[in-house]
């Protein structure tokens, strides 16, 4: 099921996936080739730079609804029960209400370089 969608130009080529209450600093990328970096309550994903066009990001709750290739699998803590998609400036965002707690997260993208379509799959871990 589609939980949220954001279609925007990402001025820094960076998508944030965060708990809406998160103020946690994000770790830097281990290598320049990494497409995703993660903290406990937040993820950062490299996407198409806004100068190159729009990127569509969706939150869905099942792998079968995701488009593209798997680029990341891990965990995210969402204590507020609200997840936010946003650009690095916070000027554009979309929120979705979900169960609070730990979630398995898988990110799918249409490209490993400047993705223009990204799907975030969230499923409760418990």
Describe this structure in words.
The chain is mostly beta strands and about 130 residues long. It has one domain (about 1-125): Substrate Binding Domain Of DNAk, Chain A, domain 1 (Sandwich). The protein contains no helices and 10 strands. The chain has strands at about 1-10, 15-20, 35-40, 40-45, 55-60, 70-80, 80-85, 95, 100-110, 115-125. Strands 1-5-10-9-6 form a 5-stranded mixed beta sheet, with no helix packed on it. The two termini are about 20 Å apart.
According to CATH, the homologous superfamily is Competence, DNA-entry nuclease inhibitor, ComJ
- The beta-strand count equals 10
The total tally of domains equals 1
Uncertain stretches: none
Helical proportion?
under 10%
Series of H and E elements: EEEEEEEEEE
Q: How large, in whole angstroms, is the Cα Rg? A: 13 Å
Lateral arrangement of strands in the main beta sheet: 1-5-10-9-6
- Mean pLDDT across the residues is 93
The outline comes out as: globular
């Amino acid at each position: 099921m589609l939980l949220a969608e954001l279609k925007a130009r990402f001025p820094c080529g960076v998508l944030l996936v965060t708990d809406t209450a998160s103020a946690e600093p994000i770790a830097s990328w281990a290598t320049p080739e990494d497409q995703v970096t993660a903290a406990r309550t937040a993820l950062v994903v490299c996407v198409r730079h806004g100068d190159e066009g729009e990127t569509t990001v969706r939150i869905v709750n099942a792998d079968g609804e995701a488009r593209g290739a798997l680029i990341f699998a891990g965990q995210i803590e969402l204590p507020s029960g609200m997840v936010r998609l946003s650009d690095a400036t916070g000027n554009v965002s979309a929120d979705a209400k979900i169960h609070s707690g730990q979630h398995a997260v898988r990110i799918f993208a249409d490209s490993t370089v400047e993705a223009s379509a990204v799907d975030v799959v969230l499923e409760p871990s418990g």
